[in-house]
Amino acid sequence: MHPLIQCKTTILPLLMSGALACFGLLLEAEAVVPPPDGGYPGGNTAEGQNALLSLTTGGFNTAGGYFSLSSNTTGNFNTAVGAGALLANTGDNNTAIGAAALLSNTTGINNTANGGLALYANTEGQSNSAFGRDALASNITGGYNTAVGRWALLDHETGNFNTAIGAEALISDVDGRWNTAIGYRALWLNTSGRFNTGVGFGAGADITGDGNVCIGQLVEGEAGVDNRTYISNINTTAQTFSAGVNDYVTVRLTDGRLGHTQVVSSRRYKEDIKPLAATSQALFALKPVSFRLKKELDEAQTLGFGLIAEEVEKVNPALVYRNGKGQVESVRYEMVNAMLLNEFLKEHRKNEQQEKTIALLKKELQARAAHQQKQIEALTAGLQRVNTQLELNKAAPQTVLNNQ
Question: I want to staple 99 with a disulfide (CB 3.0 to 4.6 A). Which of 17, 82, 160, 250 is the partner?
Fold first, then answer.
């Protein structure tokens, strides 16, 4: 048994008996003259025609108004102020202030209604709180709901754990659960959706699905969609990115936590540092594709280029992000970029070495060419000398003897 329940079931009767005993002693010791109007045995107070009309053993009830708490027989700790307030009630620990507030309640317990017709139709629902005219007026068996504002959760009947703060907030909800609406007409059209949140004037007014979040004035969302988030000004406020001045907002896939891109490149944040070496060669197994997103993600289905995360996972599981369910969600392109840089640097170093080798070969070829040129020039000079000598020999005069 929950400690609070145990406390209520064990200590409360003792407190009641003690209070009655003290009350009796006080009556014996000193009486108010004239006696309080409407005071009755058992700590009950009734004022108004047919107030607490059917009471038998119930105690510590307060009824003020025409037919207020008129059906209560054994219920305890009820407070009804207003004509017809808690009219049909037999349950415990209910408070109704306003005409017809909690009028239909029979066995529901721990309810609070403040406002005309607040929790009007409630019969068995428990632990509901309604503040404002017609707040939770249609609730029948729903429990643990809170409505603050005129017509807040007006049509609600059976769902649990909803919170509506603001006039007409969650006004159309019938059996939704775990919804939170704060602001005039927040989550206005939701009827059966669950886990929706709307904060702001008219926030989430068009939402009908589950798990949606709308924040900001007139951020109305969309009908028939689930698990989407809408925040005002995000799509209209532009700012120039400047490193060290502003940053990008990020979302963690596993749980949706917001943050920002925390660039921690310093060595003091890292350990187990190793060169990529051959690791980056996995890039050569990747298969870039063109694609178009499905219409529910991009109505225009704009042409895009990229990778398929499931295929990348087969190449290297470290290159993909996963969602909260462990499913492959997207590619870690920042790691792909680092691998591309590594392969680029490797290729660059190869090119540098090749350029050095080519330069050495060129220098050697130039030296050889210069040497050969010198040899050619020497040979040419030698040939010229031979030719000159031949020409001289050819031109020398011939002497003829007369007697021969």
Answer: 82
